[in-house]
Each structure stands twice: as structure tokens, then as C-alpha cells.
Design brief:
single chain, SH3 type barrels, six-stranded antiparallel β-sheet
């Protein structure tokens, strides 16, 4: 397993777990990052933060610190 923050632009995977049962963890799940959903990194801001993702057919931007809470199975392993 790896973290969403470890993926490069163009790579994707399947969400396995969102760490933390706090406001941030709950908010990530409310935005669609739930176990079993596929996610792809579409891009990043010039300094690398935030990341732009494709999740459930829409674009989502999250901070790298938030992406570090999302455990994924990379697409080549799916």
C-alpha cells in the first residue's frame, strides 16, 4: 500500500482507507474519498501543493497533508 501523496501526475489507484476520525478525515470522505473508489492525480500547483484529483467523475483539489492521510492501492496493483 502507498499514500495518495506518493502518486505522480497521471497515476491513479483505489482508495483503501482514510486515516483519522477527525474533522479532516470526515471531510475527505464527504468529498468522495471513500474506500473502494478510484482516484487519479491530474495535476499539481506550481509548488506542488495542492494536488488536483479526479474522483467519482469530478475534479477535487486537496492539500498534500490531506493526501498523506489517504491509503491507496496503486493502479498497477489493482
Amino acid at each position: 500500500m502507498s499514500l495518495l501523496s506518493d502518486l505522480k501526475i497521471g497515476q491513479g489507484g483505489r482508495v483503501q482507507k482514510v486515516h483519522g476520525v477527525d474533522e479532516v478525515g470526515m471531510r475527505l470522505m464527504e468529498m468522495g474519498l471513500t474506500p473502494g473508489v478510484d482516484v487519479t492525480v491530474l495535476g499539481a500547483a506550481p509548488l506542488g501543493d495542492p494536488l488536483e484529483l479526479r474522483v467519482r467523475g469530478y475534479r477535487l483539489s486537496i492539500r498534500i497533508s490531506e493526501a498523506q492521510r489517504v491509503e491507496i492501492e496503486p493502479a498497477d496493483a489493482v
